[in-house]
Amino acid sequence: MAIHKILVVDDSKTELMVLSDLLSKNGYSVRTAENADEAFRRLGEEKPDLILMDVVMPGQNGFQLTRAITRDPQYSNIPIVMCTSKNLETDRVWGMRQGARDYVTKPVNGEELLSKIRALA
Fold first, then answer.
1. Which of 6, 8, 22, 36 would you label with 45, given CA atoms 20 to 30 Å apart?
2. What is the distance between the alpha carbons of residues 16 and 12, in angstroms, rounded to a whole number?
3. Could you write out the three-class secondary structure of the chain?
4. What's the pTM?
5. Per-residue pLDDT tens digits for 73-90
Protein backbone atom coordinates (compact mmCIF):
# COMPACT_ATOMS: atom_id res chain seq x y z
CA MET A 1 0.00 0.00 0.00
CA ALA A 2 1.46 3.35 -1.02
CA ILE A 3 1.41 6.02 1.67
CA HIS A 4 0.36 9.47 0.48
CA LYS A 5 -2.01 10.87 3.13
CA ILE A 6 -0.83 11.09 6.74
CA LEU A 7 -2.84 12.16 9.78
CA VAL A 8 -0.64 13.62 12.55
CA VAL A 9 -2.26 13.54 16.00
CA ASP A 10 -0.46 15.66 18.62
CA ASP A 11 -1.58 18.26 21.15
CA SER A 12 1.56 20.37 20.57
CA LYS A 13 1.17 22.98 17.83
CA THR A 14 4.97 23.07 17.53
CA GLU A 15 5.18 19.31 16.93
CA LEU A 16 2.31 19.49 14.44
CA MET A 17 4.14 22.23 12.55
CA VAL A 18 7.53 20.46 12.58
CA LEU A 19 6.10 17.08 11.50
CA SER A 20 3.77 18.62 8.90
CA ASP A 21 6.67 20.57 7.41
CA LEU A 22 8.95 17.50 7.28
CA LEU A 23 6.28 15.29 5.73
CA SER A 24 4.93 17.79 3.20
CA LYS A 25 8.48 18.61 2.02
CA ASN A 26 8.86 14.89 1.34
CA GLY A 27 5.73 14.69 -0.81
CA TYR A 28 3.10 13.59 1.72
CA SER A 29 -0.32 15.16 2.10
CA VAL A 30 -0.74 15.99 5.80
CA ARG A 31 -3.78 16.61 7.99
CA THR A 32 -3.58 17.28 11.71
CA ALA A 33 -5.61 16.72 14.85
CA GLU A 34 -4.90 17.98 18.36
CA ASN A 35 -6.92 15.40 20.34
CA ALA A 36 -8.89 12.16 20.05
CA ASP A 37 -12.21 13.81 19.12
CA GLU A 38 -10.59 15.81 16.36
CA ALA A 39 -8.72 12.69 15.15
CA PHE A 40 -11.98 10.77 14.76
CA ARG A 41 -13.53 13.73 12.90
CA ARG A 42 -10.55 13.75 10.51
CA LEU A 43 -10.85 9.98 10.01
CA GLY A 44 -14.51 10.44 9.07
CA GLU A 45 -13.69 13.23 6.61
CA GLU A 46 -10.87 11.49 4.78
CA LYS A 47 -9.24 8.15 5.52
CA PRO A 48 -5.45 8.54 5.79
CA ASP A 49 -2.88 5.98 4.66
CA LEU A 50 -0.96 6.36 7.95
CA ILE A 51 -1.43 7.92 11.39
CA LEU A 52 1.41 9.43 13.44
CA MET A 53 0.20 9.32 17.04
CA ASP A 54 1.44 11.23 20.08
CA VAL A 55 0.87 9.52 23.44
CA VAL A 56 0.64 12.31 26.01
CA MET A 57 -2.52 14.29 25.21
CA PRO A 58 -5.37 15.67 27.30
CA GLY A 59 -8.47 13.49 27.44
CA GLN A 60 -7.97 10.22 25.63
CA ASN A 61 -4.24 9.49 25.35
CA GLY A 62 -2.49 8.07 22.30
CA PHE A 63 -2.42 4.51 23.64
CA GLN A 64 -6.20 4.57 24.16
CA LEU A 65 -6.82 6.22 20.80
CA THR A 66 -4.57 3.72 19.00
CA ARG A 67 -6.48 0.86 20.60
CA ALA A 68 -9.83 2.39 19.62
CA ILE A 69 -8.77 2.95 16.00
CA THR A 70 -7.18 -0.47 15.51
CA ARG A 71 -10.26 -2.21 16.94
CA ASP A 72 -12.65 -0.32 14.66
CA PRO A 73 -13.20 -2.42 11.50
CA GLN A 74 -13.58 0.76 9.45
CA TYR A 75 -10.04 1.94 10.36
CA SER A 76 -8.19 -1.17 11.53
CA ASN A 77 -6.14 -1.41 8.33
CA ILE A 78 -4.57 2.05 8.81
CA PRO A 79 -1.03 1.66 10.17
CA ILE A 80 -0.22 3.75 13.25
CA VAL A 81 3.25 4.89 14.25
CA MET A 82 3.55 6.17 17.81
CA CYS A 83 5.54 9.41 17.86
CA THR A 84 6.16 10.38 21.47
CA SER A 85 8.53 11.64 24.14
CA LYS A 86 7.80 8.48 26.18
CA ASN A 87 11.05 6.65 25.55
CA LEU A 88 11.03 3.69 27.94
CA GLU A 89 11.05 0.19 26.48
CA THR A 90 7.84 -0.58 28.41
CA ASP A 91 6.14 2.37 26.65
CA ARG A 92 7.24 1.05 23.25
CA VAL A 93 6.02 -2.47 24.07
CA TRP A 94 2.69 -1.12 25.37
CA GLY A 95 2.22 1.01 22.24
CA MET A 96 2.85 -1.99 20.00
CA ARG A 97 0.40 -4.06 22.07
CA GLN A 98 -2.26 -1.40 21.46
CA GLY A 99 -1.88 -1.94 17.72
CA ALA A 100 0.89 0.44 16.65
CA ARG A 101 3.09 -0.79 13.79
CA ASP A 102 6.13 1.19 14.90
CA TYR A 103 7.37 3.59 17.57
CA VAL A 104 9.49 6.73 17.24
CA THR A 105 10.67 8.92 20.12
CA LYS A 106 10.87 12.71 20.18
CA PRO A 107 12.77 14.72 19.28
CA VAL A 108 12.07 13.03 15.97
CA ASN A 109 14.96 12.20 13.69
CA GLY A 110 13.51 13.09 10.28
CA GLU A 111 15.42 10.46 8.32
CA GLU A 112 14.50 7.73 10.82
CA LEU A 113 10.82 8.66 10.64
CA LEU A 114 10.82 8.80 6.84
CA SER A 115 12.54 5.42 6.58
CA LYS A 116 9.99 3.87 8.95
CA ILE A 117 7.16 5.33 6.84
CA ARG A 118 8.72 3.99 3.64
CA ALA A 119 9.12 0.56 5.27
CA LEU A 120 5.34 0.43 5.87
CA ALA A 121 4.48 1.17 2.23
1. 22
2. 6
3. CCCCEEEEECCCHHHHHHHHHHHHHCCCEEEEECCHHHHHHHHHHCCCCEEEECCCCCCCCHHHHHHHHHCCCCCCCCCEEEEECCCCHHHHHHHHHCCCCEEEECCCCHHHHHHHHHHHC
4. 0.96
5. 999 999 999 999 999 999
